[in-house]
Amino acid sequence: MKKGILYGIGIGPGDSELITVKAMNIISNCKYVATPQTGKSESLALSIVSEIMDLSDKIILNLTFPMTKDKTILDKSHEDAAKSIQEILDNGYDVAMLNLGDITIYSTFSYVMDKLLNDGYDVELIPGITSFCASASKLKISLTSMDGPLHLIPTSSYNIKEALQLSGTKVFMKIGKSMPELIETLKELNLEDNVYSVQNCGLENEKVSKGLDGLNSKMGYFTIVIVK
Question: Closest Cα to residue 15, out of 126, 173, 134?
Answer without folding.
Answer: 134
